[in-house]
Amino acid sequence: MSAEATSKSHPRPRRTQAERSLETRTKVCEATLQALIDVGYEQISTTLIAQKAQVSRGALTHQFPARNDMLVAAFQLLVSEWRDGYPFGSDPEREQLTVDELIDALWDNIFSDPRYIAAMELMLAARQDNDLGHALRDILVTWIGNRDKITVRLVGGDVDDDEAGLKVQLHLSILRGIAMHQSFDSDPDTARKLIELWKRIARNA
After folding, report:
1. Angle, to 10 degrees, between the axis of helix 162-182 and the axis of helix 190-203?
2. Ranges of each domain in the chain
3. Alpha-carbon span 165 to 8, nearest angstrom
4. Which of 29, 35, 68, 185 is the most exposed, fewest CB within 10 Å of its CB?
């Protein structure tokens, strides 16, 4: 039986309203992150996001009545990906990383992603004393606490050791700076050179 005949005899089940709603929300969140990369927090608009998501304004506002709702949901989506992905989704009881492996994993899976620039735009917005700032800070506080503990454990450290926690903060700060530098450096090799230099320094720290 041909693929066409099979398709006709076994039509795809219609998606539920919940599935369609989730698809729209995900598209809008991804479009919000891309808009933050392209124009920054100050210039972002619901019109631009609707265009990038290829959804109508009505569909967009049905899911997210206000611009801030989209920004918070987009940040939550990104943080959820970090939490569940590598290396943070790993079980420290089963997998341990060297400092070199940790730095590479953080860079390859989080900081080198262009969407990290979108995250930085939202982190800066979190400083504001308004509803958006408070909502973003709530996400950040929960995420940072979990992130730092699992990172310390992944390299075999003690979560109660203040210096181990500071070393994690230092790795993240260096990688954050390299990510920002990469966003405007015309030489695509600079970031990797900086990563390799930091790994050499970190081995002796």
Report:
1. 160
2. 68-203
3. 59
4. 185
85 DSSP assignment: S
| Distance in Å from the first CA to the final CA of the chain | 66
Tell me the C-alpha distance between 128 and 167, whole Å.
28
- Which H or E run contains 159? none
Q: Are 103 and 195 in contact (CB under 8 A)?
A: yes
Classify the C-alpha dihedral 121-80-35-105 as positive or negative: positive
**What pLDDT is recorded for position 8?**
55
Structure tokens at 173: 């700060």
Paired tokens of 80: 């959820």
Please give the backbone phi and psi of residue 154, each rounded to the nearest 5 degrees, phi first: -65, -30
pLDDT digits (tens, 9 = 90+) for 158-204: 999 999 999 999 999 999 999 999 988 889 899 999 999 999 999 88
Structure tokens that stand for 66 in this block: 């206000």
Tokens of 121: 């735009």
Q: What is the pTM of this model?
A: 0.85
pLDDT tens, position by position, 14-42 = 768 778 888 899 999 999 999 999 999 98
Unique residue bearing structure tokens 């958006």: 132
Q: Which residue has the tokens 């006709």?
A: 8
Residues 6+ apart with CB under 8 A from 203: 99, 100
Q: How many other CB atoms are found less than 10 A from the CB of residue 128?
A: 13
